[in-house]
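Rotation project, supervised by the postdoc (A.L.). Task for the rotation student: set up a whole-complex structure prediction and record inputs and outputs verbatim in this book. Inputs entered:
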Amino acid sequence: MKEQEFIKIIKSTLNSPYIGDDCAYLEDLGMVISQDSLVEDIHFKKEFITPYQLGYKTVMVNISDICASGAEPKYITISLSLPKDTDNEFIEQFYKGAKYASKNVEIVGGDITGSDKIYISAAAIGSTKNRKVSSRKNAKAGYKVIVSGEHGNSATGLNLLLKDNHTKGEINNKFIKAHLMPEAQIEFSRRIAENIKEDYAMMDTSDGLADALFQIANASNVIINVDTTKIPHDLEVDMHTVLYGGEDYQLVAAVPENLLQKIFGYTIIGDVEQGSPSVRFDGIILKEPENSLFNHFKE
Amino acid sequence: MKEQEFIKIIKSTLNSPYIGDDCAYLEDLGMVISQDSLVEDIHFKKEFITPYQLGYKTVMVNISDICASGAEPKYITISLSLPKDTDNEFIEQFYKGAKYASKNVEIVGGDITGSDKIYISAAAIGSTKNRKVSSRKNAKAGYKVIVSGEHGNSATGLNLLLKDNHTKGEINNKFIKAHLMPEAQIEFSRRIAENIKEDYAMMDTSDGLADALFQIANASNVIINVDTTKIPHDLEVDMHTVLYGGEDYQLVAAVPENLLQKIFGYTIIGDVEQGSPSVRFDGIILKEPENSLFNHFKE
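Outputs recorded:
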């Protein structure tokens, strides 16, 4: 997996303690920052998504990273690189969608430049005031593993778009809506980060639930046991897609059991135990995903 | 100028007070943020710049935005979108250059995704602690206009690269070095922002000195008078390139005269007077640049 290889090189070149989580925690400024990109024909296809939905998704994807850290999403900047034939309507619709998605989050800047294809990169800022910040290194033996909602819907929606003749921007289908207009789990994140005292691990499941579980197990040096029958999912969606399909933008967290009486709106899917890092699905140790649906370096 | 048209649409769609300066000032968090992108074949050509220099320039360009605000550059995140054939050596050299440029600024994250061409977007964070933040709206009648250094060198370097057969990454020529490895004006910014009490305007000259002067004059609703004979420049560089060539990453500021006894390392090139917004070069009102060397939407 080339991306992981590149990240190893970056870590060793920079020798920085910050690289590792989706957000960087800047303690002196009381904030976290993350940056995420959407590239035409890699992350989206113009024939499936409207400019409004693209603006919406750009913001949600970046808010989701902030939610994964436990911080409160506050500000976002958006850089757009656009082909020369881009019209005013695209810009207006893109920013209307971005504004709708951002709710209480302020869009405060960015830049516009030319390019061959559409490249979007956004940076999001979260405030850590009254919040405990997560790290994927923080899962501990005895912790419970919880998720915020259904998995596999977005990948199922993408498959529908790829297979059938769907109208651009169609969202009356539940799965397609999950793919084109995901929702960041702002409330789930807030409930945990405001109520927890102990260190905890949390990630969003943008690269798939299995991927997030492996990242936490490896970074925390623990075994994660998952009962797949407990994972919330639509009955139409097969378990492979539930585990490996990405872009649901749900949250998965490993938290101490005593937190659970203080919060609501979660589903327990497993627990953490000591041992050589791995993830066991119904007792079976599966290999780490190498070629998920959303490994953008492979086609 | 399409970019300006797009920015007008964005402003009216978002109705946000933050859009306008290169950096957004997030007062509640005591910080500024800016985001800037570099796109292959729009902002750079692979045959001219080494991966090391590209990493260096990515960081410097973003630090320069923070310097323009008067804040102290602190953190940076970098998103890279790279073609599939990108090798480990590119990543290592890119980040070595980025690290060299960043000095006391920490590179804290970002992401890597696939793409057809190289697309780089970085977000930079500055701390406003003990600093007065600039705005291009803040130039006032009676203020002096000062610059940090020579203009026109970078554009001259680009022209040399485009015309002649230069070795990739060559920097023994002063102009080519100015183009490939510019230096952000960290000290110039610090001296002003730590010593000034009054509101002031400051911009970097990434899109050219004339462009920055027009932006300040328009946003502040003032006339800026410039004595072109005072603008620091190499004698080999003609005045058109000095005024309209971009990417020098110097700073230009409009500041009250009483500041000047407290700082050093500046050159006075003009002053501000009341009146309908315009820029007068040696008394002549020139038209606002519509098609500068660095208007990336036109080829």
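Student's summary: Residues 51-69 of chain A form the longest helix (19 residues).
Supervisor addendum: The CA atoms of residues 72 and 264 of chain A lie 18 Å apart.
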